[in-house]
Amino acid sequence: xxxxxxxxxxxxxxxxxxxxxxxxxxxxxxxxxxxxxxxxxxxxxxxxxxxxxxxxxxxxxxxxxxxxxxxxxxxxxxxxxxxxxxxxxxxxxxxxxxxxxxxxxxxxxxxxxxxxxxxxxxxxxxxxxxxxxxxxxxxxxxxxxxxxxxxxxxxxxxxxxxxxxxxxxxxxxxxxxxxxxxxxxxxxxxxxxxxxxxxxxxxxxxxxxxxxxxxxxxxxxxxxxxxxxxxxxxxxxxxxxxxxxxxxxxxxxxxxxxxxxxxxxxxxxxxxxxxxxxxxxxxxxxxxxxxxxxxx
Length: 296
Hints:
This protein is mainly alpha-helical. The chain folds into two domains: 2-58, Alpha-Beta Complex (Molybdopterin biosynthesis moea protein, domain 2); 68-286, Hypothetical protein af1432 (Orthogonal Bundle), CATH 1.10.3210.10. 48% of the residues lie in helices and 4% in strands. It is built from 13 helices and four strands. The strands form two sheets. A two-stranded antiparallel sheet has the order 1-4. A two-stranded antiparallel sheet has the order 2-3. Helix 2 (68-82) packs antiparallel against helix 3. The longest helix is centred in the middle third of the chain and has 21 residues, at 89-109.
């Protein structure tokens, strides 16, 4: 069984779960073979997604674990927060809570999560897409670790807002296509402090969530920033987000470099002489990454 957007349904696919209208009336019963008429009926009732049974030709598909609508709406929310002149997270907290819980619910439904980077990422609006992807990747690790619902939620909020401090970094530095000067790099690293400061001011955001913004650039060997913490001194949520953050950053196009291939990134992050990431978190994540055997 898999969740599929209605617009992607092909006549002949079999419905896996009964579909109800928003008023609770049954529209189509589980087990029915979908026809063009059925699809039109669902469109009329504004049904956007449904569950279909697998068929043999689909078993090798690698669908995104998160619906496109959820990703896009969460991205819009991040854009709104980060483009705001006066950050007021409390006014947007209900929406943050909704999208994090929605992502958690959709991930928990998928017991066979396999990440399709081509479907989960849009290279435009990098900062916003990156925030959503890091949230998704972090939650995949949290689910693998069998986190409680509370921990998943706090991890999701922290990961979703981990880069919020960048709103205080001028675009001339943040989007500079050439190498940063030492002064510019020192300033951009301040986004960790700025993010923690912003999140800490919200009464709705826990300290554990806020610490993700502060510590997601710390590294296990002590080479990170801002405090050069090492090993278990780095909060667990930040160690998780660090893995998600670096993986997404390296596999995304940036203004100053092209993305790297998945194989290259996996080899870099799992190298035997690499001591930047928590190995437990890294292994939890890497088991869900499908290496591209056709990658040159």
